Amino acid sequence: MHNYKYKTVDASGRTQSGVLAAKSEVEVASYLREKDLFAISIEKMAKQNLLTKDVSIGSKRVKIVHLVIFCRQLSAMLKAGMPLDKSLTTQIRQTESKVMKKALITLSGQIQQGVLMSRAMYDQPNIFPKILINSVEAGEKTGHLDDALVKMGDYFYKQDIIKKKIKGAMWYPMAILIFTIGIATALIVLAVPAFAGVIIDSGGTVPGITQFYLDLSDSIRAYWYIYLLVIAALIFGVRRWLSTNKGRTSFDRVKLRLPKVKKLVKQIIAARFSRTFASMVTSGLSIIESIEIAGESLNNNYAENKVIAIIDEVKKGEPASKHLEATGIFPIMMVSMLSVGEEVGEIEDMMIKVADYYDEEATSAIDKLIALINPLMIVFVAGIVGSIVLALYMPLLDSILTAF
Known about the structure:
Largest sheet: 3 strands, antiparallel
Order of helices and strands: EEHEEEHHHHHHHHHHHHHHHH
Mean pLDDT: 82
Shape: elongated
Distance between the termini: 83 Å
Number of domains: 3
Structural class: mainly alpha
Number of helices: 17
């Protein structure tokens, strides 16, 4: 599936545009003709990352938790025997997300016009991830839409847990870093000049480390705006670089090579790939389509490129496990389990077990990483603040030693 941007005109001469997910331009044109719309233009959009992380519409976002609530509430109402249109109307009233509410209103309106739910979701690819759309489509075909939504609710819930764990692990060192920079700046700008002034007035000598911080203090006070501009430029430059495909791919590659971090990243990738792959195969998709969607769900450009690159080889009939192992990204256990699943014809069960295992391993690894970061941050803070304190008291120590 690819996203196509189209522009149409109806019988009354009104034009409208939108985005539709389809396999080809011919399928888009056919769909528009069914709606009595004439296609003025159909353009294939540049490929975007399809993530199980927060998905955006414009500058706004729909959080994973809203997808979890959507899937679980809708499945519960369908299991209770409530019609789909009434279930969506109920959800529209309950949802707290304005973006999600707008999406559900559009979705409900299309369904009331006789459009299948999966097809209506295709029209909003920035709100509803491809994995959810394909699962809904499979549920519609088998008559078990409620079960498909239950599985998707669990899928997004587990993704959300890992995401929150990672955010929690990153929050502590970032908070400590900002706090340390603030304290250090205050000491350099306010305390160092005062202490150094006293020593200079008394005729004492200023040690090298004290002179360094004194010069830095003078520089910050005189050119503070330049420092702010440099910091802002660095932040903007890094964010701009990471927003490019090349920058994000390079950064994702570095994450897979950093000591202590690479093992955690590989575990998260293995869990995400396994669960998505199993969900897609269970939904009735081919191995090729399942690999493609699973690759797009990894939230790692470098890993995604490696996975997508093996599709041509798998199309030739070769085992997917063989080529996934060759990427060097996936743990041996995951590849071995997939290989066994391919041999005995139980890929779904094997991959679900692998996903559960690596979810637990990733959670444990995050906890260990946090335990490692805590003492390192303490040493970092002690080093920065300690050097400034040393610069403050060195002149006093020199004066005392000289007096003796």
